[in-house]
Write a structure and sequence with these properties.
The chain is α+β, with helices and mostly antiparallel strands. The protein has three domains: about 150 residues, Phosphorylase Kinase, domain 1 (2-Layer Sandwich); about 200 residues, Orthogonal Bundle (Transferase(Phosphotransferase), domain 1), CATH 1.10.510.10; about 50 residues, no CATH class. It is built from twelve helices and 15 strands. The radius of gyration is 26 Å and the shape is globular.
Length: about 450
Amino acid sequence: MKCFHYFKDRSKSREQRSAPIFKYQSKSDISAYENERVTKSSSSANSVRGDTNKSSGSTTSPRSVTELYEEKAQYLRVFSFSELARATNNFDRLLKVGEGGFGSVYKGKIKPVGGKGDCSVVAIKKLSTGGFQGHKQWVAEVQFLGVVDHPNLVKLVGYCAVDGERGIQRLLVYEFMKNKSLEDHLFNRAYPALSWERRLQVMLGAAQGLAYLHEELEVQVIFRDFKASNVLLDEDFKPKLSDFGLAREGPTGEDTHVSTAVMGTNGYAAPDYIETGHLTAKSDVWSFGVVLFEVLTGRRSLERYRPGSEQKLLNWVKQYPANSRKFGMIMDPRLENQYSLSAAKLVAKLADSCLVKNAKNRPKMSEVVETLKQIIHVSVEVTSPDRSFEPIEDDPIEEKPTKQIGASESVKRRMAHLAKLSEHVDGVGRRKFMIMQRQVT
C-alpha cells in the first residue's frame, strides 16, 4: 500500500500517532495531496502573510498547511475502527444521515476520553473503500480541519485510519449538525422553509467562514466547493462550512493563482477556473454569488426539468434584474411574500458583483461580509413595527376638489405614488400593491 505512506508506524506511542504525519524524502518532494498544485510563478517563495524582520531585512516564508497541521495535530482524537462501529451500531442504515461521493455519513455516540462522562453525539463519515482520489480528499479534510478554528467552520473531533484484514478504513468524526444543510431547507419540501431573516443570517455566517479562510489565516485556504449542501446548520441554525476534501492552499508571494485539475460541482465553479484551471479565492466568491441567488429564488443552480430558458439559474435571473419592476417574480414562493423587497434587491446586486466575469473585479469575502451586514440592517429597519407602512388601499391620495384632473393625469399620479411606496412594501402589503397596480393600468 505505497499510496498510504503518509502515516507513521501505528506501533509508536499514542502521542506520536495522534494524527497523520506527511513525510517527504527531500525538501523538493511533495505529497500526493499536493502533486497537482503548480503555481504560475515560482520567482518568489515569500508571502505577503510572512513576517518581516526589519533589523535583518529578511522575510519569513509562511508555513504550509502541512506544517501548521503538525503543530496542532495533537488536539485531534484518534479512534479505533471498533469504537466507531459501536458508535453507529455497526454502521446501521437507520443511522445514516447523508451520502456523497466521499462515502456515507452516520449519526453516532462516542464516549469521552477515559470513558467517564456522558456520550457526545457526532457525525461519522466513512470513506468508500478503494480509490486513491477519495484518500487524497480524506487527507485534505484532516489537514485543513485540523488547522482551522472558526465558529462558522465545522469542527473535526478526530479520525480513524486502519489498514487491516477488513481492508482500508478511513473515517472522520465531526460535531453533529442537527438541522442538516442549507440545501435541505431550500429545496426539500419535507423541511420547513427558512424565513427571510434566517436566510440572511445563514449567508452572513457562511461569508464569515470564507473570509476567515481567505484572509485571516497564516496561509490562504481556497474552499473550492462552496454550495448549499456544504453549509451545515446546527441546532440554532448557525451555519458552518463542511467538506474540505477539495480545499487547496492559495497562491503565495508574487503568484497570482494555483493551477489545479478542475474540480468542484457543476453549476457552482467559476468560468475562469473551468477555462484555465487557475484557482484563486475569487473562485469561491463566484460560487457564493450562485448560492445567493439560490437563497433568493429557492431554485437550484441547475434544474433540468424546467423549460429551457429556466434550467440554468444564472441565465434565468438575468431576465429579472434588481432594478426592474419585475424583479419580485424570481423570489422564492415559499417565503410567502414575507421579506423586504428593498433588501432582496440589494442581495441580488451583491450576487451580481460576485458573478462578474473578470475575477479581479469581484469583491473580497470580507467586503461581502460588510455588505451583508448592511443589508440585514436595511431589512430590519424596513420590516420593524415602528417603521411599517399602512396598506396601500388605506393610504389616501390627496386630490384637490377645486381642480379637475384629466383621467390620464390622474392615472400617472397614482402610479407615481404607488411606485414611491413600492420599495417599502413587504409581505401582504406587497401583494396588495401588485393588485392595485394591475387595476390602475
